[in-house]
Write a structure and sequence with these properties.
single chain, about 230 residues, alpha/beta, Rossmann fold, 6-stranded parallel β-sheet, two-stranded antiparallel ribbon, 8 strands, globular
Length: about 230
C-alpha cells in the first residue's frame, strides 16, 4: 500500500549500480529507456550531494586474467569476456553520472554491490536507509536489494531510475522486489529527492507477505500503482 514516508538524510546513503556506456551503446546490452534512467540518476545524485548523503558508484567489470571468473562465463574467441570486459571502453561509467569529488567507484564482477565490503562500511556510518538505482533491474539491482535486506538495511528502491532489457523485464523485476521489500519502499525519483531533502513523500510498502499477484495483462497497471 502507499503511505507517507520520512527518512533522516543523516542515516541514508545512495547506491548507483552499473550505469555504464554498454547499456546505451552495446546492442547486446541495451537497457530500455536508459536515457530516462541516466536523467533520473542525475537528479538523485544532485539531491544526495545537496543533502550530504554519501554516494556509492558501482561498475560491473570482468577481468578474465584475474582468476576469479566463473568457469562458464561467456568468452570471445580471443579469451576476453563477452561483455563488460576490463579493456572495453563501453565498460566505463556514463560521464553524466560519474563520481565527483572523491566519491568511490567500486568495481565488481558479481551481481550484488555487497561483495565489495559495502555492508560493513555502511554499518560503521550508522546508515539505515539505502536509495538504490541502476541496471539491470532483475539482475544486479535485484541482487543488491536482496543482500541489503539480509543485512537489515531499509531500501528505497527508485523504480524510474532503474531499467532492464525490456519494459516487461523491468516492471516484473520491480514487482518481484516490491513483494518482499519489508521495511523498505518503492519510490519515484521525485519522491526520493524529497526524502533526501528531509521532506515527507509517498512510497509503496508491502503490508503482508507477497501482496502483489500479477498476470501478464496486469503487470503494467500494478507497476504504475506502486
Amino acid at each position: 500500500m502507499r503511505q507517507t514516508l520520512c527518512i533522516d538524510p543523516a542515516r541514508a546513503a545512495a547506491i548507483f549500480i552499473d550505469l555504464q556506456e554498454e547499456h546505451r551503446q552495446d546492442k547486446r546490452l541495451l537497457a530500455v529507456e536508459f536515457d530516462r534512467v541516466i536523467s533520473n540518476a542525475q537528479r538523485l545524485q544532485e539531491a544526495a550531494r545537496a543533502a550530504r548523503i554519501p554516494l556509492y558508484h558501482y561498475a560491473y567489470v570482468v577481468d578474465v586474467q584475474a582468476g576469479a571468473t566463473r568457469a562458464f562465463h561467456p568468452r570471445l574467441p580471443d579469451g576476453r569476456s563477452a561483455f563488460s570486459d576490463k579493456d572495453d571502453p563501453f565498460s566505463a561509467v556514463c560521464p553524466e553520472v560519474a563520481p565527483q569529488g572523491g566519491e568511490p567507484l567500486m568495481i565488481k564482477s558479481e551481481a550484488s554491490a555487497f561483495g565489495t565490503g559495502l555492508g560493513q562500511d555502511l554499518k560503521q556510518q550508522g546508515i539505515e536507509w539505502l536509495f538504490v538505482a541502476g541496471v539491470w533491474t532483475e539482475a544486479c539491482v535485484d541482487a543488491t536489494v536482496k543482500d541489503a535486506l539480509k543485512l537489515d538495511f531499509r531500501v528505497a528502491l527508485v523504480k524510474d531510475a532503474c531499467a532492464s532489457g525490456s519494459v516487461a523485464m523491468h516492471q516484473t523485476g520491480i514487482l518481484n522486489l516490491a513483494n518482499r521489500l519489508y521495511g523498505g519502499a518503492v519510490v519515484t525519483t521525485e519522491a526520493a529527492c524529497r526524502l533526501m531533502a528531509g521532506e515527507e513523500a509517498e512510497g509503496w510498502t508491502p503490508q503482508s507477505p507477497v501482496p502483489i499477484r500479477y498476470e501478464a495483462e496486469t503487470i503494467g497497471a500494478l507497476y504504475e500503482a506502486l
